[in-house]
Design a protein that fits this description.
539 residues; alpha/beta; 6-stranded mixed β-sheet; two-stranded antiparallel sheet; 60% helix
Length: 539
């Protein structure tokens, strides 16, 4: 059976353009207000500080400790080179998110309910739009790739460049980038004799660009497994890998739908979301290439984010959004002129009086015979089920500090003199440092000034005499603690903020004292002198 898809120009449905503009404006305002009220947490500020305080070569040198591709850091380096404050990172994310929403609204050939689910899912509403990390770049690039995908053979250079970009956003996208690049190579071989010499040259160059992007991804990260503190200390075994793979669908759904929540309604939502996930993947099989692209992405995501690393709401939201974007890639191809698809044969309707089970099987077969509509509904439901968690994050971030980074930085800025020094034990104050580019932070554990986390353990023991020598050049010392331990010296801190951070499923307490080096030495002698930083964090 053949289905002939009617081609509709991009300017169709002009009567709905005004409504789309209103939705886009509403989305832009909602996210803009959220960005204004958001406080950066550690991972956000870490990337900004690395980009701000390094040259381009320095950024590449440090990536082996970060374990992330370079694109996000390079873009932030451009912003920092312009002298912009760290708040610019949030508005950059906002701009990319609004562009993504505009592409979805005006260029995606899907039903309005699917567009609404994509735009207001948790990833687009909060976790990858207001939280300023590289995931907002992934959403944007996925939208652009979906639009370019049916024209990829006409624009191989652009398509290769997009593959290179998406490969350099996050390791979890390596599977998608790899399979898209592999299909470019397959298409090159298949079409070699049917296209002209000039087109073949462009096709080869497109593949070279995509491959170069993969090299940029891999080369800076070759040492990550040994250099990155988390990766080096991870105990990976065959049994743990199998357990992670088996649990991965549930973990991904929980991170999207109901992180740190429980109850019967949550259990029902989680079950429905898992059903939608598995069913949509199964029904996708009718479009072989789209199915293989989706499956490859899923397998690589699980390998990276479940076996080696771990899922978070950010990454889990990217997982769901990517599946939706891959589905849209197939829909975009359907729009091409005279597109012809082979659809599954419709099942025979059961006779009256047949059992409920037979009629249910008929409905399932009927849904499977209409893959585009079925996958659209299933993925829209899956995306919609993430909306409550996004709304919850958004409201909580509006009503309370996400983390006490901005308020702690404000206190230091208002109370410190020009010749004062901020001291921490470890190297874990990146989120405060981002707001204070002109203030020096010194780590006693590492015996050095710092502006971002080194992702390594300190070598040897803390040399307190070195700190005393440095502290003698400053008028006042402010000691900042992010641990939840008891008050040092039984002295009340000048500043204290204790926040529950639902996004990272933890708590963060920031306290600030003004002390002398003698007072600090008494504490270190009694409590943590010669204790390794990783042991200190567990106290």
């Amino acid at each position: 059976m053949q289905i002939y898809t009617q081609v509709r120009p991009l300017g169709a449905d002009k009567e709905k353009a005004f409504l789309r503009i209103l939705v886009l404006i509403a989305y832009a305002i909602i996210v803009f207000v959220g960005v204004l009220n958001h406080e950066y947490w550690f991972d956000e500020a870490q990337a900004w500080n690395i980009a701000r305080d390094n040259s381009i070569s320095g950024i590449f040198s440090f990536l082996k400790y970060e374990g992330h591709p370079p694109l996000w850091f390079l873009l932030l380096h451009v912003l920092t080179s312009l002298g912009l404050p760290c708040e610019a990172m949030g508005f950059f994310c906002w701009g990319l998110s609004v562009l993504s929403a505009a592409i979805i609204l005006f260029l995606f050939p899907v039903k309005p309910y699917f567009k609404a689910a994509m735009i207001f899912c948790s990833g687009m509403l909060f976790v990858n739009s207001i939280i300023a990390r590289s995931y907002c770049l992934i959403n944007f690039l996925l939208c652009v790739i979906a639009v370019i995908y049916p024209k990829r053979k006409a624009h191989p250079l652009l398509f290769g460049l997009l593959i290179a970009f998406i490969a350099n956003t996050h390791l979890c996208m390596s599977g998608l980038a790899g399979i898209l690049g592999l299909y470019m190579l397959i298409d090159l071989i298949k079409d070699w004799k049917s296209v002209g010499k000039k087109q073949n040259i462009f096709n080869v160059l497109g593949i070279v660009i995509a491959a170069a992007g993969a090299a940029f991804l891999v080369l800076p990260l070759l040492e990550s497994l040994s250099s990155n503190n988390f990766a080096a200390n991870s105990a990976l075994s065959f049994d743990s890998a199998v357990k992670s793979i088996l649990k991965s669908p549930l973990i991904i759904i929980l991170c999207c739908v109901a992180p740190n929540l429980s109850g019967i309604p949550i259990d029902i939502m989680t079950a429905v979301a898992e059903l939608c996930l598995f069913a949509s993947i199964i029904v996708m099989r009718h479009k072989k290439r789209i199915f293989i692209i989706a499956l490859t992405f899923i397998l690589f995501y699980i390998a990276v984010c479940e076996v080696v690393w771990y899922s978070t709401p950010n990454r889990a939201s990217v997982f769901v959004f990517t599946l939706a974007a891959v589905f849209v890639m197939g829909q975009m191809e359907n729009r091409e002129a005279a597109a012809v698809q082979n659809a599954p044969k419709l099942p025979e309707e059961p006779k009256k009086g047949e059992s409920f089970i037979l009629r249910l099987l008929y409905k399932m077969k009927l849904a499977d015979a209409k893959p585009d509509k079925t996958v659209s509904v299933l993925l829209a439901v899956l995306l919609a089920l993430t909306v409550p968690s996004g709304v919850k994050y958004y409201i909580q971030d509006m009503n309370t500090e996400f983390v006490p980074s901005k308020s702690a930085a404000r206190y230091l800025k208002e109370n410190m003199g020009e010749n004062d020094l901020v001291v921490t034990y470890g190297d874990d104050a990146s989120q405060i440092i981002a707001y204070l580019p002109d203030v020096k932070f010194y780590s006693i554990a590492f015996n050095t000034f710092y502006s971002y986390n080194f992702h390594t353990d300190p070598e040897g023991t803390s040399d307190y005499s070195e700190f005393c020598r440095i502290a003698a050049d400053y008028d006042n010392i402010y000691y900042v603690s992010r641990s939840g331990g008891s008050d040092i010296w039984n002295i009340a801190p000048l500043y204290e903020s204790f926040e529950y951070v639902p996004f990272v499923l933890g708590q963060e307490q920031v306290r600030i004292w003004r002390v002398t080096e003698e007072e600090l030495k008494i504490w270190f002698d009694e409590a943590i002198l010669n204790v390794r930083f990783d042991e200190r964090r567990s106290l």
